[in-house]
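Re-run requested by the PI after the first attempt was lost when the workstation crashed. Everything re-entered from the original request form. Ligand of interest: aspartic acid.
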Amino acid sequence: MFKVQKPVIVVHGGAGAWYPERSQSGLEGVKKAADVGFEILKRDGEAVDAVVEAVAIMEDDDSFNAGYGSSLNLEKRVEMEASVMDGKTLKAGAAGLLKDIKNPIHLARIVMDKTDHVFVVGEGADKLARMFNLERRKPFTKLRLKYYEKQKKLLVEGKFKLLKLASLVKKCPDFFELDTVGAVALDKNGNVAAATSTGGFPLKIPGRIGDSPLIGCGNYADNRCGACSATGVGEIAIRLVLAKTVCNFMESGMPAQHAVEQAITLVNKRLNDVYNSMGLIAVDVYGRVGAAHNSPNLCWAYITPEKSKPIASLTAKLVKTPP
Ligand code: ASP
């Protein structure tokens, strides 16, 4: 029988291509987030507190496509979304279409803890944030503006048509930065939790909701098996209910690493005809860590009891499309 190791935290700063201009700050960012989450776990904190605060750290870091560093949509505006799930109670909270909430993950937590609902968007979410005096910060960085101008120029020049986002990114994947953030944790009491936050897909149509705030798609946690957070093309994760699929694999007995690899294999097999770039992190209830992707990179970090310092990387297990 595998010896349980507790506590454990795994975080990601997004799939996609991590170019040198941001890779160092990305690695520093995921390490810092893992440290903050692990400190909470070490002090007997709950998994749900650890994942929320780890994600909040990355929302404040403009290296990532979440919170302050969020990608711009087609109309050059930001619409952020986030979700959290507590594996002990199966309670979950999510918020979407947020324009200026400094930490969308804190609003997701409020939805989970203070309302009877799971998912609140737009004006209602904004009102809720006001009721709880959440901090505001206009998310609009020079880096995301630069990416936007590049992406938009190609569109305007008619180099490709915006018929479908999938074919658009297939033709020009380098212009789409997938740097959503997420965290999964196992606390000392054996509880798991997951949190995910994003500015969404660059150049998305206003009003588009991705996988990150959708429970089961970009995020899932269940004390029976473990927790998972996804990053990549949200539409792929939605169509395969990917985070829940990873949890189902773990529930059937697979270790976290095997489960995320199987899920990426599923993406490669079932949705191979579209742009299907994805990354997944997971932890199972035995404290085993999983990370896999078919995207060029996955910026991620983890801490286990044996390793007091975070281990960070821009790659994990790369699962290629079968020939
Ligand atoms: N999954 C996110 C979305 O589609 C994007 C990302 O992971 O960066 O909204």
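Saved to the shared folder this time. The chain has a mean pLDDT of 92.
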